[in-house]
Amino acid sequence: MIPDDVIEQVREASDLIAIIGEHVELKRTGSDYRGPCPFHGGTHRNFAVIPKKGLFYCFVCHEAGNVFSFFMKKLGMDYPTAVREAARRAGIVIPERGTIGPDPREPLFNAVATAADWFARQLREAPEANIARHYLVSRDVTLETAQLQGLGYAPRGVPFLEAMKGLGLREEVLLAAGLLIKRDDGSVAPRFRGRLLFPIHDLRGRIVAFSGRILGEGEPKYLNSPETPVFHKGQLLYNLHAAKHAMRKTERAILVEGQFDVLRVSLAGLEEVVAPLGTGLTDDQAVLLQRHAPHVILLYDSDDAGLRATFRAGDVLLRHKLRVSVATMPEGEDPDTLVRRGGAATLEGILKQGIDVLERKIQILERKGFFGTLPGRRRALDALLPTIRAAADPIARDLYLSRVAEVAGVRKETLEEEVSGRMERPRPAVAQPVSTEQFGPAAQTEKTILLVMLHSPDWKARVLAEVDPENFSSPRYRAVFEALAEDAPDRLDEIAARTLEDLQATGLGVVSADDMFVWAMNTIDADRKSREIIRLQREIDIAPETDKARLTLEKRALTDERNAKRPTWKILETARRKGAPGT
Predict the structure, then answer these.
(1) Which fold has domain 4-90?
(2) Where would you tag: which of 345, 414, 465, 476 has the fewest CB atoms within 10 A of its CB?
């Protein structure tokens, strides 16, 4: 098989204008080239070649693809032969790896590509797709633009299954490609029904999956293809196949939340834009970004959910030594509405005003008054420490330590010890109403918070008002908390989803939600204060005599404050007597 990196090198080096120009006369029209279609003939210039994306498209017969597709469709080559022909013309020698043979996944690639063509035709022609066409018009997206982007429409009912069978695609292949689902009674049905479809490409530009937006009533709002042998959503980014060239040129990537944001930003002329695929940013996706650009600008919504997603993504990116900025949009705006209202110039202005991700956290904490009190400063540090720890670049980490020490009023050396985990950890300062799991007291506290959160919508709202993701040290419990906060449990991986199911099955039992929440919040607060007390004691031990009295008073006041909020033994005894969850 031909190595993937070589295939990518060949595709980038190929002169698509020269290759297609051997078959039809092409003339420049703006940044693209137009000419008669080499596939269906004719004299009108309905055929477009887009060199900066390495793609072609006919607005009449709708043939589309890249340089390899052209050789395959025009000259009847198979895929490996098309790659070799393009490599020969570009002067690239292909090193072979082992025995050359067909890719066993080829039937799946073929099934998804066939489905994409059929979905695109439905969007253009099907009467049922009027709802999708009207929706696009309402979002200022023309049908021509939708065609160039490969958008499609999945009708309701069985037309898709009948069409695929008519084209010779076997049911087992369609199931393996994630295009069909099997019901409990053994029957099959199309996975996508009544949805506007966005094709998802791999780095070679092959369509491997879809993301479907519901039109009208229904849940979920967006539905992605399942994991398949050709699609792993945590290892791809939407639009990266087209954006990577612009990312290298501009030395930056713009990361947005969804497909429509990508579409709008790229149409505004900023082509270095990508998005995750319905989940939080993964380490694999951060590696992809790091390969193509040294700087990532996060352009997420500015509401609470958007900020949580922003800072989670920022920490992931920092772990891979990327420079991370946050661009802040006006309240109520997203990239789509922003560009529609103010155009590319407005968006570019906001991007230029982006600030470092840690500085954005500090900015929010300052506005909320966290640095005005001792407990507030401790909570602020709890929010900032994960970002400092995430900074894998030593220079960035040192700058972060200096900045946070300055704004929080702590010694840099003390903060560095906390970040490195070298400070002594206190034993739990409060009694626990539930037994300790193998994951330790902290995880048990986090489990209790989730149980309360699941108790009712009112309790969920109260938890979200008082608890931050930074309060969670257990990755699986934090993942569940964030998914519940964003009403997106379908985004959980298998382990976290199983954890959520266990929590739902456990419930609070006969212990009141109020008692459990009081215990959990007091535990979190006591642990935070205990860490601060230890820090103060360390400062007292090395402080000059002139400062010892002041620091001792601070420590005593904080100790009294912690002890005054210690949970009563009555709660503990009630929980033990009634049987708290987990006991």
Answers:
(1) DNA Primase; Chain A (3.90.580)
(2) 465
